[in-house]
Specification:
about 250 residues, alpha+beta, 2 domains, five-stranded antiparallel beta sheet, 6 helices
């Protein structure tokens, strides 16, 4: 098969031209970064696992009518997605104090929040993805007030659904990051969920032991990173076709 034209490469994924207009191929890498790419490494097989986990969760969200960019998984490391105009905002939903929230406000990590908190961060690596308010987002035209209404409604709906789904397999959804995009179809625009949902952008703790099962194991040098990602996939009932062994990417994509 001819190699498709690369359009974009991020920290964890590569986007290629899709087979049809309005589509892209999203390739999941094993590269891992933390602290705004100050820490870099490789988690063997992460791309394969994240591809499967994100596919599973996107399909589950589609069942409750959450619109997403996902079309279908193509192979172990690639999925076909709809081309969207990414809104340059990271939406973080927090259920339990952890990470930067615990540090900023001096709240002990693991403290359950009185209610879910939604935070916004401007997607800009050079600025370190600064935290912003809805007023900044609408004032600078990154998203309209109507867009923001859709975004916060979808974010809270996704949180409610995923919290229950993960709890059912013994995992606590501590917090997670979402990205949204504008999908243009038939002269209409709607806000849809984009990017991915995986242990790369979710904090997932074992419900009984609070053991971390996400990228914090990489951030904090806790070890057993690959095993944690595999355990999330195992509990969700999904593992790559080849099992947890030969998870290297195709040579043509190196």
């Amino acid at each position: 098969m001819a190699r498709r034209r690369q359009l974009y490469e991020g920290k964890a994924k590569i986007l290629f031209e899709g087979p049809e207009p309005g589509t892209l191929v999203q390739y999941f890498k094993d590269d891992a970064t933390a602290f705004n790419a100050q820490k870099k490494g490789t988690i063997t097989g992460k791309g394969v696992l994240n591809n499967r986990i994100s596919e599973f969760l996107m399909l589950k969200l589609a069942e409750i009518n959450v619109p997403t960019h996902f079309i279908r998984r193509l192979n172990m490391r690639e999925q076909l997605i709809k081309e969207v105009e990414i809104i340059p905002i990271e939406v973080v939903v927090r259920n339990i104090a952890a990470g930067s929230l615990a540090q900023r406000l001096g709240i002990p990590e693991g403290t359950r929040l009185p209610r879910s908190i939604v935070e916004y961060y401007y997607k800009n690596d050079h600025l370190g993805d600064p935290m912003v308010a809805e007023e900044h987002i609408t004032a600078f035209g990154w998203a309209s007030p109507h867009d923001m209404d859709d975004i916060i409604h979808l974010a809270l709906r996704i949180n409610d659904f995923l919290t229950g789904l993960f709890l059912g397999v013994g995992i606590t959804l501590v917090d997670f990051k979402l990205e949204f995009g504008r999908l243009y179809e038939n002269d209409e625009m709607r806000i849809v969920l984009a990017d991915e949902i995986s242990p790369d952008n979710c904090r997932l703790w074992d419900s009984k032991t609070n053991e971390k099962m996400d990228k914090d194991r990489f951030r904090r040098d806790l070890g057993k990173i690959e095993e944690a990602y595999q355990e999330v996939a195992r509990r969700l009932g999904i593992l790559p076709e080849a099992g947890s062994r030969d998870l290297k990417g195709p040579e043509t994509m190196q």
